[in-house]
Every structure is written in structure tokens, then in C-alpha cells.
Q: What sequence folds into this?
């Protein structure tokens, strides 16, 4: 028996409907913020991700699905959306108007991670990216939009963690400080962190292996290295969040796993005691230098991405999905071959008029046809036999009251319109 690849999922029935329900809700909220959809390819030239996330990031060093295509080009299934959107923004010169540009995306991402609760190898992200303005107001608006999405979905027990990792100069200062500090404690770090010490000491702070290591917890905090501009910028972002009464926790160890961030970084995590507790549901930040590092103009960006499967799991847990199963408006029953054909033609006509209509394609016996009506919780059952055909009428049964009426063929739409509001 063939099996799906580890860390992937088949979605069908109600589970597929939940995904669409969620997607529609999110699209409705984010379109009011002026974000337009951007659809980029599922794969990119590998360099797009290496350049943006950084060689030392977990994504690039361990998690990418990279392969050579038949033309010997190195291709990577996208592990995240930001780099692809930046690439497209530049390639299509979308900066040319000089205005703020806002994009959102929805789609599958691929990471070779160890599958566990809420962690897949193929998963969906909903993300936004806004380019062209550096303003605490925009940072706050982006952060608040994520909280509005949680609200629209009805999700509770979400905590916002926020930090500033400063501008380029602040980061450089801090990295020097960390190199000195961790250099003295190198033997107490995991092997990955020993390697990170040289190239990206900031990443040691959010090491998944060493997260409870006291050496990491006692490391100098970034605040002391922030430039005055970065400090003021961060204060302003926090002030706007305060004014909006959005609660947050400043987490000085929050540095994010990707290299492109500057200044504001944030994560929304679920506060719960179970396996999903502490997982980031939405994460992002500002990136002032990423567009330039792609050889583009000096344009800042900011964004975030939600882990869609994680939202689905939380919504299940918190019982937030409405009833999504499809009930048939009409099941059509035919009692002889000629009548069966007629049920098909009638079903097509009813579907065109907007009624979910189904029939049993095989049987002319009543029992299995009524069983189908029960399975599909049909509101009405239409029965056609020789008698009905002869008189150009339909026998219509209301499946909840069990009342039965004879309706002339050419009045059936009117009849259903009246009965199914
Ligand atoms: P990220 O933190 O790598 O950031 O991923 C964002 C979210 O995607 C995570 O918080 C999580 O909910 C979800 N996620 C990540 N990996 C997995 C996985 N293996 N299985 C299920 N869900 C997962 C980014 O991707 C950035 N591009 C976000 C961003 C946009 N920053 C600025 N703009």
C-alpha cells in the first residue's frame, strides 16, 4: 500500500471545508486592510532563500527541499513566503509607483522538520508583506491586523511576544557583545550553537535545543546595544499598541530564526498546557535591509506569517467551526430506467438554480435511494415513476415533516423557492 510522505496530510470532507472556511474568513479581514493577493511559484531558485534567510538559519542549513532540475539548476520548494514575495516585488518593479505596497499570500510551504504536533513537512502559511514605509504606525497596524484575525476567528488564549533586535549597527554591536560572552562559555553550548557563535551568535538565543540553558538565559540583553533611533522606534510601536489596548510581553530572547529581521520582531503564541502550548501561531517582523540585499532599492518591509494547520488545530480545540457538512436540498428518486434519466436532467436543472441535488446513479429500488436521502440529510425528496411521467408531475416529500405532495413539473422551482428559504 502506498502511503503519504511523512509530515504531509490528506485533507478531505469536513477537514478540507475547514481549511476553506478559515481561508475565506482571513481573506475577508485582510482585504479590508488594503492587502492584495500575490501568488508566487511553489519553487524558486535556491539562492532566493539562502540569500534572505541566511546560511546559518535552520531553514537553510537543515530544512530545505532542494534538488537539481533537468537543466542542472538548483531549485528549492519554498520554505517560507517572504523571500519569494521580495523577489517578485523586485522582478516586477512593483516599487516603481513609490507607494506603500501591501501583499498577502496563502499556500503550501515545505520544510524538512521533525514531524510532531503542529509541525509538518508540508504546511500552509497565510502571510502578509508591506513594502515602502518605515513607521511605527505601520508596524503597529501589521501586528494589530494579526490580532484582528484571531478575533474574527474567535480564537482565545493567544499571547503576543515582542522585541526589537535593532537596526544594522545595533545588531553588530550586540553580536560583538554576545561573541565575547558566549566565547567564554563555549563548552556549555550545543554543537549547533558552537558553530553559530562565529557566524550568527544572535541565533544562539533562540536555540531549540538549549532553550533552558542558564548560560543563554543569563546572556546580555539586546536592549543595552540598541541605538537611540531603534530604542525610540520600539517605544513608539509599544505606545501605539498600548493605546490600542493590545496586551504584549517583551521577550528579549525573541530574535527569530531568519536573518532578515531588523528592529521590531514578534510572535503570537498559544497559551495552553497541552502539546500546542507555546507554539508560535503567527510570527514576523520588520526587515529594513532585505530588499537592498536582493540588489534592489533601499526599501523597508514588514510582515508576518500564520501557520494555517496550527490555527485549524486550535479552532478544533476551541470548538470554533460552525456546522460545515453539506446537506442536500433535494435527493431525486427514479423508479424505472426512463425515470432515472429524468431525475438526472431535473437534478442538473435544480443545481443550475442553486439547489444541492443528488441522485443514486445505479439503483431503481426505493430502499437504497431513500438511504441516500437519509445519508445526505436531504430536505426534500422528489420521486419520479411511470405515473408521474405520464401526468407531467413530481411527487415531492418533505423529509422532515414526511408530508407528500404532487407538484406539476413546471412549478417545481417555484415550489422549492417557497419551501427552502
Ligand atoms: P516562521 O516563523 O518561520 O516565519 O514561520 C511562520 C509560522 O509558520 C510559524 O509561526 C508557524 O505557525 C508556521 N510554521 C512554520 N513551520 C511550520 C511547520 N513545519 N509546520 C507547521 N507550521 C509551521 C516565516 O516564515 C516568515 N516568512 C514570516 C514573515 C513574513 N516575516 C516577515 N514576513
A:
Amino acid at each position: 500500500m502506498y502511503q503519504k510522505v511523512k509530515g504531509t496530510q490528506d485533507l478531505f470532507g469536513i477537514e478540507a471545508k475547514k481549511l476553506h472556511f478559515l481561508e475565506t474568513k482571513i481573506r475577508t479581514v485582510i482585504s479590508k486592510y488594503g492587502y492584495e493577493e500575490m501568488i508566487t511559484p511553489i519553487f524558486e531558485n535556491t539562492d532566493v532563500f539562502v540569500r534572505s534567510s541566511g546560511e546559518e538559519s535552520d531553514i537553510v542549513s537543515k530544512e530545505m527541499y532542494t534538488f537539481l532540475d533537468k537543466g542542472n539548476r538548483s531549485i528549492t520548494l519554498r520554505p517560507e513566503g517572504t523571500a519569494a514575495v521580495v523577489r517578485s516585488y523586485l522582478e516586477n518593479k512593483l516599487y516603481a509607483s513609490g507607494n506603500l505596497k501591501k501583499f498577502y499570500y496563502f499556500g503550501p510551504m515545505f520544510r524538512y522538520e521533525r514531524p510532531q504536533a503542529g509541525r509538518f513537512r508540508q504546511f500552509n502559511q497565510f502571510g502578509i508583506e508591506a513594502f515602502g514605509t518605515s513607521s511605527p504606525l505601520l508596524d503597529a497596524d501589521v501586528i494589530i491586523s494579526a490580532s484582528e484575525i484571531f478575533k474574527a476567528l474567535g480564537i482565545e488564549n493567544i499571547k503576543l511576544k515582542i522585541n526589537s533586535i535593532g537596526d544594522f549597527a545595533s545588531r553588530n554591536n550586540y553580536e560583538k557583545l554576545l561573541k565575547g560572552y558566549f566565547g567564554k562559555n563555549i563548552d556549555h553550548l550545543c554543537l549547533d550553537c558552537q558553530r553559530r557563535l562565529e557566524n550568527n551568535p544572535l541565533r544562539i538565543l533562540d536555540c531549540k535545543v538549549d532553550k533552558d540553558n542558564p548560560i543563554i538565559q543569563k546572556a546580555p540583553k539586546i536592549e543595552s546595544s540598541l541605538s537611540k533611533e531603534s530604542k525610540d522606534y520600539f517605544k513608539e510601536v509599544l505606545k501605539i499598541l498600548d493605546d490600542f489596548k493590545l496586551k504584549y510581553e517583551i521577550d528579549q530572547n525573541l530574535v527569530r530564526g531568519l536573518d532578515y529581521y531588523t528592529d521590531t520582531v514578534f510572535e503570537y503564541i498559544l497559551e495552553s498546557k497541552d502539546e500546542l502550548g507555546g507554539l508560535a501561531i503567527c510570527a514576523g517582523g520588520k526587515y529594513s535591509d532585505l530588499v537592498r540585499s536582493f540588489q534592489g532599492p533601499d526599501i523597508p518591509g514588514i510582515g508576518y506569517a500564520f501557520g494555517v494547520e496550527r490555527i485549524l488545530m486550535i479552532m478544533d480545540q476551541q470548538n470554533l467551526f460552525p456546522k460545515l457538512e453539506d446537506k442536500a436540498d433535494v435527493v431525486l428518486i427514479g423508479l424505472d430506467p426512463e425515470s432515472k434519466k429524468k431525475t438526472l436532467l431535473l437534478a442538473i436543472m435544480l443545481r443550475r438554480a442553486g439547489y444541492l441535488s443528488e441522485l443514486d446513479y445505479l439503483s431503481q429500488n426505493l430502499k437504497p435511494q431513500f438511504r441516500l436521502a437519509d445519508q445526505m440529510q436531504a430536505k426534500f425528496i422528489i420521486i419520479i415513476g411511470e405515473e408521474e411521467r405520464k401526468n407531467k408531475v413530481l411527487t415531492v416529500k418533505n423529509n422532515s415533516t414526511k408530508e407528500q405532495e404532487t407538484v406539476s413539473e413546471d412549478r417545481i422551482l417555484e415550489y422549492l423557492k417557497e419551501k427552502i428559504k
User: Anything to note?
Assistant: The mean pLDDT is 95.
